[in-house]
């Protein structure tokens, strides 16, 4: 599988496996499903694996660490996140996490981007993952914490990068304006951008993507199906967008794109996957997958041969902006 390198030398395969479902996002993921997802990604040539303490209150990290322990550490890239601190709490029998994961509510999450919290958080992640170093650590959703995150949080990650505990550092957010500011004003190497540069949204063309190109900062694109809206060949009336009911105008736009895809012999999810990788600032796409089948579908969509005329047609019909690919 093709790879791109961050400015620190970290090699990222074009496709990566996201670990939210390994943390029981929405419902239980069986051990068989989790193992199947990791092994299918490996067999398909992917060597990029992403997780976070937030995913299942640490369960995703523990699970992914156990599965990756069967492979040589130097052969894969492992990323996690910091800043959404897990605080132990008293909980009753059968009480589940209220953050969307089917796991016991043994912790609550607190945003804390102080130096101490970041250093402790990374140490705890290393322990859960069973490794002695991390390839990438992102500050996780510092949307409302610019001052502390940009000074103390990034400062702590720079310390860890200087010590060799972490190779590359960055931020992960579902907006583009603040990550663009991190790119311009702090010494980060990579941004994980969630759901904002897709077939339906290209706002980062105005801020983050040009800033990243200028600074040599990589973009790892996630949420490329817009929480399911682009995951099927045609969009149902009850489809979700950002995990709530999608507006009718957005559904109509997605189906208009789907019609053009069909004219060119492909489908909406394949076009969504390939679009997500076409901008020169984007190094990789990370896709959250629950099992081997979802991994296989993602990689096959990435590798499918798509008529280049599709993109010109989408632009000429006003469904994509001019200059969308940099």
TrEMBL record:
The protein, known as: Aldo/keto reductase
CDD domains, per database record: AKR_FDH (cd19162)
Pfam families, A to Z: Aldo_ket_red
Ranges where the NADP-dependent oxidoreductase domain occurs: 16-306
Stored InterPro entries: AKR, FDH-like, NAD(P)_OxRdtase_dom_sf, NADP_OxRdtase_dom
Organism: Microbacterium galbinum
């Amino acid at each position: 599988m093709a790879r791109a390198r961050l400015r620190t030398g970290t090699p990222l395969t074009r496709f990566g496996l996201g670990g939210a479902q390994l943390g029981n996002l929405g419902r239980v993921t069986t051990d068989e499903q989790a193992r199947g997802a990791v092994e299918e990604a490996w067999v398909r040539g992917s060597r990029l694996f992403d997780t976070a303490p937030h995913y299942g209150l640490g369960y995703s990290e523990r699970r992914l660490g156990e599965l990756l322990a069967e492979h040589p550490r130097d052969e894969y890239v492992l990323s996690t996140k910091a800043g959404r601190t897990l605080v132990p709490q008293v909980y009753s029998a059968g009480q589940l996490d209220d953050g969307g994961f089917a796991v016991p509510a043994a912790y609550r999450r607190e945003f804390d981007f102080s130096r101490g919290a970041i250093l402790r958080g990374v140490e705890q992640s290393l322990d859960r993952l069973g490794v002695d170093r991390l390839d990438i650590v992102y500050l996780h959703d510092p949307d409302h914490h610019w001052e502390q995150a940009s000074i103390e949080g990034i400062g702590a990650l720079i310390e860890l990068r200087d010590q060799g505990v972490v190779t590359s550092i960055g931020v992960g957010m579902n907006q583009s304006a603040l990550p663009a500011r991190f790119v311009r004003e702090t010494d980060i190497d990579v941004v994980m951008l969630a759901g904002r540069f897709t077939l339906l949204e290209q706002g980062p063309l105005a801020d983050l993507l040009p800033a990243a190109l200028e600074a040599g900062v990589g973009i790892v694109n996630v949420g490329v199906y817009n929480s399911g809206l682009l995951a099927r060949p045609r969009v149902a009336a009850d489809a979700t967008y950002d995990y709530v009911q999608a507006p009718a105008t957005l559904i109509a736009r997605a189906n208009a794109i789907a019609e053009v895809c069909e004219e060119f012999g492909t489908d909406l999810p394949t076009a969504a996957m390939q679009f997500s990788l076409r901008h020169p600032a984007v190094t990789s796409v990370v896709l959250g997958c629950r099992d081997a089948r979802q991994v296989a579908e993602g990689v096959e969509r990435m590798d499918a041969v798509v008529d280049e005329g599709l993109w010109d047609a989408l632009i000429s019909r006003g469904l994509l902006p001019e200059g969308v690919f940099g």
